[in-house]
């Protein structure tokens, strides 16, 4: 987000005296530029100018050479002879380890009570046998740069001109160094790319306040007139693979400056502004191009002309070509990448609109500079930047849209600054390859403003506002509106309405809440899913939300076997983080990490549940053709649908064993695998589904403590205890539990029939216990299913309360004891319950070989 120094903004637009960052933010938000943050200096005073009066070099026992200085700090001086320090004159004694200054030099001194970046407080202290009563500061210590080996020398001794331009000893240095300034950081939406410049923000400040704005992007406001182009033989555009029909480069301006002094420094006002805007000063040639880019919004690039061979050729890359960019990274190029090349297109100089290459970068020996100011296609630059994960200040502007007519003005500004501060001479080689075309005019009916916003400006006011933002307006009804060259976002009447509403003021639009149509609201499916989550929360689970991105290691951590469909995951081309490039195929993929994070933060009783979609790319087309601007054909829509992966809706939970710690008079509450199964069965009951539970072996669950839950013979989910190794790898307590269900499958099993609610019976219940002896391999679920079927309508509940194996039974058998509850629309007789009991025993014997235990 751009940083806006107030003094720099004031160079473009009249601002009130003592304008604060808070007031600037309030003014800009009126026209849609929101405040991101106000940056204030980390340095607090007193920071003053000091004059070095004496300097004694003292070598220490460790071999280190230090300077003991007496420094004149004006009204902050100690009186002569005070303390144990020598009484040469009124001054302060300060220890300094730097050696780039001498007696008579003017320096920056932080006095006791000052605080430097990082919370470094200055105080008087004894060191190296002296009282150091302050500190002589370097750029790094004040947060002004990276130079910490040498202190800041404001003026050398006997340099009368420099001395006259700085504050006197003892006077405040904060303002002179720019340490007391506030900088506003604003949030710029993608359609307002012109606000990535002081020129653009100043224009918006003018719109908001009515302040007088001077557009330094116009040739007539330059100090020196634009020279006439001398032909375009130095530049050639060979774009044989335009994207979406747009040629990658439609304007290319070059200028030359020769004889620059390579030792010339950037002026202080420029480095101060760059620093305030968040950009590090480097060298004069680089600083000038960065400064003009921030000032006017036109990205520029400076080449060492002696390292290149004209003409410059703009072309697309060949697959597999290599380029080492200025960040010292070798990059493999793609055929869509737009390149700047020389030597008849053979040598690559840089990625157009993104970053230059190291072969022609500016160095300490550069004396002849070629300046590039071009206009590139926004889509091409955006794709290249994302493909190489190389965002830059240039790409950030090009992909949002740059003024098509600003290039020659920005190049002239760079030339003027290099001539003035670098001692160079402007070359006669002036190239301006211009194939730009005006943006399409918009036919606009002023009545659209009222229709879309409710505002009622007259036609004259509509015309005035459109002209104010830079449009050319002709005609009367309808209006013909030509968008300005810096507004590629204005492509239809609705965009013009938005601009008019923005400048009139959004607060002028009356708030009208539309009436809610009858019969609208949540769908049945949405209600059921809310009921499901509410049920889990009421059971003690906590709903969470996690990002659906996972690493390729997550399946190994869960011990998911090779060949399992859950390992087939969709890989993102541009993931938010390189270590999580896959879309999850199970809610547990991300929920296990969420649970582990809560455990690591000592959240006792972690029991988290999440509902969301997972991505199953199995069977989808690898690539769908992108449709153009027209409505896609049925074939194109079918292709897009074929490339969209299946995204089922799942609900999953993970809980540690102890969900409530013990308290005075109360035992700890623990959960086990049965609670995971109960969570799934509770969800099924919401939908009116009857479930059966079956033993299963499935990662990441414990092989012997995992249940497969079915409804009407269809698997709806899994629940149980997590495998010990899984708990260990995710740093979860041993015997933690989990479950996951497919809500879409549950909806399919349920169908569209309304849930039948059974009438509540008020007659007393009859209870019977029954113990059946079955083979060891017969599951309790199978026995319970027989009991429920044989029990009929009067059987209300079945509970397994005992399992017995021992010497009283034959080897290879076990006894399962159940508590049965019978109830009907009348008081049941002993004969009726006995008959039901006998039916159960008979059918269990017939189906499972069960016998009644004596």
Automatic annotation (TrEMBL):
It comes from the Bacteria. Residues 41-165 form the TRNA-binding domain. CDD domains: PheRS_beta_core (cd00769), tRNA_bind_bactPheRS (cd02796). Its cofactor is Mg(2+). It is found in: Cytoplasm. GO terms for biological process: phenylalanyl-tRNA aminoacylation. It is an enzyme of class 6 (ligase). One of its GO terms (cellular component) is phenylalanine-tRNA ligase complex. Gene3D superfamilies: 3.30.56.10, Bira Bifunctional Protein, Domain 2 (3.30.930.10), Ferrodoxin-fold anticodon-binding domain (3.30.70.380), Nucleic acid-binding proteins (2.40.50.140), Phenylalanyl-trna Synthetase, Chain B, domain 3 (3.50.40.10). Binds 2 magnesium ions per tetramer. Residues 437-511 form the B5 domain. Mg(2+) binds at residues 489, 498-499. Keywords: Aminoacyl-tRNA synthetase, ATP-binding, Cytoplasm, Ligase, Magnesium, Metal-binding, Nucleotide-binding, Protein biosynthesis, RNA-binding, tRNA-binding. One of its GO terms (molecular function) is tRNA binding. Residues 761-853 form the FDX-ACB domain. Pfam families: B3_4, B5, FDX-ACB, tRNA_bind, tRNA_synthFbeta. Its EC number is 6.1.1.20. Its main location: cytoplasm. It catalyses: tRNA(Phe) + L-phenylalanine + ATP = L-phenylalanyl-tRNA(Phe) + AMP + diphosphate + H(+). InterPro entries: aa-tRNA-synth_II/BPL/LPL (IPR045864), B3/B4_tRNA-bd (IPR005146), DNA-bd_dom_put_sf (IPR009061), Fdx_antiC-bd (IPR005121), Fdx_antiC-bd_sf (IPR036690), NA-bd_OB-fold (IPR012340), Phe-tRNA-ligase_IIc_bsu (IPR045060), Phe-tRNA-ligase_IIc_bsu_bact (IPR004532). HAMAP family: Phe_tRNA_synth_beta1. Tetramer of two alpha and two beta subunits. Belongs to the phenylalanyl-tRNA synthetase beta subunit family. Type 1 subfamily. This is Phenylalanine--tRNA ligase beta subunit. It comes from Flaviflexus ciconiae.
